[in-house]
Amino acid sequence: MSSEIESQFSEWRSLYNEILSFLEGYGRNDPFGEGDFWLLDDNLGGGVHKIYIFNISMVTRELVEGLMKLLTDQYLGWQIMLILDMKCPAGEVPPEGIIVHANFFEEFWDKDQLKKLFGDKFFWS
To answer: Residue 43 burial (CB < 10 Å; 0-12/13-18/19+)?
Structure first.
């Protein structure tokens, strides 16, 4: 394994552990959708972590700002993707979400549609 690959893996694992520790304050990690989220535990290369969200009410600005702070502290070139992955009796939830960077975040979702689907469980404003 080259030193560049080893370095990426080491950084990936370190950030994974920090994200997981942070997220445990917001809910339960479960790869089968039985919890609130799943922090993907496969290193797909590059500087990205993916979090599949099963509980819409955990997606708050506080959560996103906390993830940004993790990146700002030591992982400036990394991104964290929050991907909505849930069912709703009122309609289909598209696999949208947010990409978190150290200094900003990008929203890729229809807030009005999510507000209609989840009502007061969707806290984002």
So the answer is: middle
Q: With residue 100 as reference, give the H or E element that holds it.
A: strand 97-100
pTM of the model: 0.93
68: CB partners within 8 A, 6+ apart: 100, 101, 102, 103, 104, 105
Q: 117, 91 in Cβ contact below 8 A?
A: yes
Q: How far is CA 70 from CA 10, 35, 76, 101, in A?
A: 16, 23, 9, 10
What is the predicted pLDDT for the residue at 87? 81
Closest residue by Cα to residue 66 from 54, 77, 82: 82
